[in-house]
Amino acid sequence: MLAPGVACIMAAVVLGTPAYFAFSPLNINPHNKTRRLDICPPPPIMKTNNPLTGSFKLIASVAFCFTLAHVAQSAVPTILKVSDAVAAGKPFNINGDGLNPGSSLRVAIWPSNGTSPSTPPAGYTSLPIIQTDPQGHFLVATLPAGTNPAVFNLWVQNADGWSSCYKMNGARPLFISDYQAHAGNSIEVVGRNFDRGEWGGSTKTYVRLNNGSGGTYGQNIVSMNPYAVTFTVGSAPAGTYYVEVSCNATTDWSRTTSGQTLTITNTGSGLDPLGLGVPWAQDFNWNNNYAVHPSGGDDTTAIQTVLNTAENNGGGVVNLDSGNYNISSALQMGANVVLKGQGRNVTYITYTGTGGGCMITTKGTGCLGGTPQLQGIANLSLQLSNPNTVSVRPDCMIALGDNFGVGMDSRVGNRIFISSVGMNYPVGTGDASGAHGRRAIGLLLKARERVLLQNNNWVGFGAGPSNEPIKQYCTYKNNYFEYAAGYTHTLADYSFIENNTIVVHGEYNQDSHGIFTRDNAYVANNSITGAGDKSNVLSDGEIICCEDVAGAFDCGGVISSTPTSMVVSPLVPLSGAVLTAATSNLSYGSLSVMITDGAGRGQLRKVAISGNTLSIVSPDPAFTTIPDYTSKWTLILPLNNWTVYKNTGNNCAAGIEPYGNAYDDVIADNTITDCMGIYTYAINGGLSSGGFFQAGTMPDVPSYFVRITRNNIQGVSARGNWAGISITTGRWNSPYNYFDVMAYGTEITGNTIIGDPAKTTFTMQNGQYIACIPADGILVDGYLYSSMSNGTGVGDVTNTLIAGNTIWNMPTAVTMTKCITGQMLYSNTTSSVTRFLADGGSVNTVQSGNTPSGSTTTYESENGLLGNTGGGGNMYISSDSAASGGRALAGFQPGAYNKITNVNGGAGGQCYLTIQYANGVPVGNVSTKSIYVNGSKLQQFTFPITGGWFGLGHYGNITVPITLNPGTGNTIAVQYDATDNNGGVNLDCYTINTP
After folding, report:
1. Does residue 53 or residue 436 have the better pLDDT?
2. Distant-in-sequence, close-in-space partners of 829: CB < 8 Å, separation ≥ 6
3. Three-class SS of residue 928?
C-alpha cells in the first residue's frame, strides 16, 4: 500500500475509460479535492483532442474508480457571451473558451446582413485586444472610435482557427409578460440590446410573431427602452407564436430565451371595463351585475350572500354603492367574482371585528369548481373601526387565491387582481411579530399565476404586499405603498414591477425593506424611500433586492460529460438531503447547473438529476463547450435575467442588491441618494463543523455576468457611511482555499459616484492599507469581507470591466484585494479623490486611459539603480512584452535593491505608491520585501502570488501610502533585507499618485 500524497504510478491510461487505483487512508477532503484523483502537475488548457498522453504522477488518498473527463471537441475558440451595447471607442468583454493569449489571437467584426458566415469575409475589421486571460476564458477588446453603431458579426481566432459567428449588439429578448393574448392587448418583452440608441445609433427596433412554420406578423410597438419593449397585438390568426425582436431593421431576429410562447385567441368577450390591461380581463363575467346597499349596521351577511349568489350563477360583479359598509368577520371570495365599489374615496368597507384573520379572504378549494380563480377587488377602500388599537386588527387586510398552507406546486389560484383599492390605518403603531395574529399586512396572496396589483394606495404599519411566492406572471403597476414593517414582495417568474412609489418609515425601527423579487423580473421606474431600521441593527433596508436564501444545493467536479449531460463528483451525494432540498425548492425557479471553473466556465443550463448524472432539460441547448476534468460546477436556482431600470432610492440603509445566484442581470440608469449604492455578493461554503454543508446553507453561490451601468450614486448611507458599487466574495469552505470563480464577468461602466470626503474608509491590516468593507467608490473584493480566506489562490473574482465611471469626493476611487484576477480599469475619471487605486494584491489588473485627479507618474523599474547592500548579485533586466515598457526586473537576491531617484512629490505630503510586480512560485506562497522612502525603511511589504513570472495576466499590484517631500528630490526603493523571506518577486514599475 502506498503512502498518501506521495504515490507515483506510471501507467497507460486511456482517456474516457475507467482506471482503478487504491490508496489509504480514506482522508481526502471532499470539498477541496471534490473526490477526484489529482493529476500532478495539472495538464494545460487543452488545445488538441488528446492532451493527456505521456506519463503523469498520480496523487490521491482514497480508493475509487475515476474516469478522465474528456471528449473530442473542437480546439477553436467558443464564444459564450459578449458584452451588450458595445459602443465605438469603448472596451468590451468576450467570454468563452480557447481565447488563449498568443500571436494568433485575433478578434474580427463585420456588419451583420442577416447571415452568420463561418469565417470573416475579406476586409474584416480586426479589433485591438487590451487584456487577455492566461487560462483562455476571456479577453477584453475595444471597438475603434468612429465605428458606425450597428449589429456586428464577431469571430475570435486562435492557432486552431476561427470560432463560430456571434451577433454582437444583436437584440436578446429574454421573457414576456403573459402567455396568451388577443387583438388589442399589450405584451411586454424584456431583454437586452433593444434600442441602438444605447450605443450611439438610431432606433431601428421591430417586434414580430413567428408561428415557427414560416408565418410572421409584425406588431405595433407602443413604448420601449434599451431593456423592454411593449407592443400591441395586431391581427394574426389564432395560434401559438414565438415573440421575436430585431434592433437592426428586420435584419437579425431573435426569440425569447425563456422558451415562452404567446398564444393568440380570437374568442372571448374582449371586455375590460376596469381598464386592467391584461389579456385575461375578458375571462371574467362582466355581464352579470349584483348590487349591495349600506345598511348602517353590520353588512357582513348581506355582502357575503350576494358574493355567493354571483359565484353560483356563473360569476359576476358585486357592486357596492357609495357609503360605508361595516363587516365584523371576513368576507370570503369565491371563483369568478369581482367585488367593486364606486371609487376608493366614496366606497368604504370598515372592519369592526375583534382581530386576527383577514378582512377579505378566499374560499380556496371551497370555490365553485374547487379552483380559486378569477377573483378581483376594485374601486373601494378598507379601513379599521379602531385604527389605533393593535389588539383588534386583522392579521392581513386581503388574502386571495389558494388557502393558507397550500404548497407552491399544489397551488392552482390564477387570474387575480386588486385595482384602485385604498387602505389607511396608522403607520406608527403595530406589531410585526405575528405572535397573536394582528399584523394588518396589506396583502398575503397565494396563487400559481397571473396576478395584478394596479393603482392601489395602501398606508399602514404593515400595509405592503408581503406576498407568499407566486409561481409566475405577476404585475405591480402604479401603486403607492407606505409602511413601517415588511416588504413590497413578489417572487414570481415573469414579474413586472413598474411605476410604484414606496415610502418606508424606518424611524419606527421595524424590519423593513423595499422591493424583493427573484429571477425573470423587470423592476422599472419605481421610487423607494426610507427602507431600513434607523437603529441600524437589522439586516434590512434594501432598495431593491434579488435573493434566494435556499437556492444552492451542491457543488463539485466533473467525472465525464457529453454535450447534454455530466457525470459529477459532488461535494455530498446528490441523493438524500441535497436532492430533497433541491426538489422542494423547484417552485421558486428552475434547477440549474452553472459551470464555475475550467472548461465551459460561465455556462448555465436547466438540469434533471439521476444518481450523479445531471442532464440538460429542454428548451435549454447543449453545452457550447463540453465540461471536462478541469471544470467545477454548482447546482442552484439561478436568479437570472433580473432587470432593474430607472428606479430611484432615497435614504435607505442598504442599496440595490443582486444577492447571489445572479446571472445575466442588468442594473441601469438608477438614481441612488444617501443609500449604500449597488452591492453584489457571492460565496463558497456554508459548511458545518464536520466539513459537509447543511442543506439550504448555500454551498456555492455565484454571481455571473452582472452589468451595472449609468447609475447615479450620491451621498452615503447612514448605516455604513459609504456609497458605491461593490463586488464581494467570501470563502467558508474550510480550509478556506480557492475552489472556483465566484464572481465573473461583472461590468461596471458609465456610473457616477459622488461620496462624502469627510468619511474615513481605510484602516491598516498586516502592514497594508485596506478598505473598511464595504467601501466608497468601486470595490472588488475576493479576500476581506465575509471571508475566511487564507489569502492563497487567485480568481474568486475574475474578469471585472471598470470603464468610463466618474468618481468624486472620496479618499479612494477603486479598491481591490487579494484573490482576484483580470480587472480592467479603462477611462475612469476622478475629482477630489486622494488616490485612484488601492490595490491589496490583485493579479492581471490592466489600467488604460484613466484620468485621476491630482498627478500620476509612472517610473520604470529598469530605469532605476540596481545594487546589493551585501555585495551579492544584483537584479537583472528581462524582456517581457506584457510588462510596462516591455521590460521588468528579475533575479531578486538577498541584499539586492532597486532604487528610483528624482521622484516627484508635487507639493509634498501624503501620496500613494503602487508597485506592479509578478510572483510566480514563491516559497510559502508569499514574498516579503522592504520598501524605503528617502533612505528610511517604511515597512516590510507582502507580495501575494500572481501565478506566473512573466506574460499577460501574471502581473499584480499593491498600494501603500507614503510621505514625500515637495519637488523632485525624493527616492523610493524596494530591497531584499535580511528579515525578508526568500520568495521571489519580479519588479515592473512604480506609480506615484500625488494630490
Report:
1. 436
2. 805, 806, 807, 850, 851, 852
3. strand
Give the HSE-up count for residue 135: Cα atoms under 13 Å, Cβ half-sphere.
22
Q: What is the pLDDT of residue 578?
A: 67
Cα–Cα distance for residue pair 41/50, rounded to 1 Å: 17
How many residues in total does the chain contain?
995
Cα dist. 310→287, 314, 359, 905 in Å? 11, 7, 19, 84
CA 403-404-410 angle, to 5 degrees, is 65
3-state secondary structure of 152: strand
Alpha-carbon gap, residue 414 to 416, rounded angstroms: 6
Q: Judge contact between 588 and 551, C-beta under 8 A.
A: yes
Burial class (CB in 10 A: 0-12, 13-18, 19+), 745: buried
The separation between the first and the last C-alpha atoms of the chain, rounded to the nearest angstrom, is 65
Helices and strands in the chain, H and E counts: 3, 82
Grid coordinates 490595490 are at which residue?
Answer: 839
pLDDT digits (tens, 9 = 90+) for 484-506: 999 999 989 999 999 999 999 99
pTM of the model: 0.85
Cα(646)–Cα(528) distance, rounded to whole angstroms?
Answer: 12
- The radius of gyration of the chain from alpha carbons, rounded to an integer in Å, stands at 31
Residue 401 neighbours by CB under 8 Å, 6+ apart: 362, 364, 372, 375, 411, 413, 416, 445, 446, 447, 451
Residue with grid cell 396563487, as numbered in its chain: 447
Q: How far is the CA of 114 from the CAs of 250, 251, 294, 533, 861, in angstroms?
A: 9, 5, 65, 54, 51
Rounded CA separation 231/51 (Å): 52
User: Over the chain, what is the mean pLDDT?
Assistant: 86
pLDDT tens digit sequence for 59-101: 333 333 344 444 445 589 999 999 999 999 999 999 999 999 9
Per-residue pLDDT tens over the stretch 644-698: 999 999 999 999 999 999 999 999 999 999 898 999 989 988 644 444 445 445 6
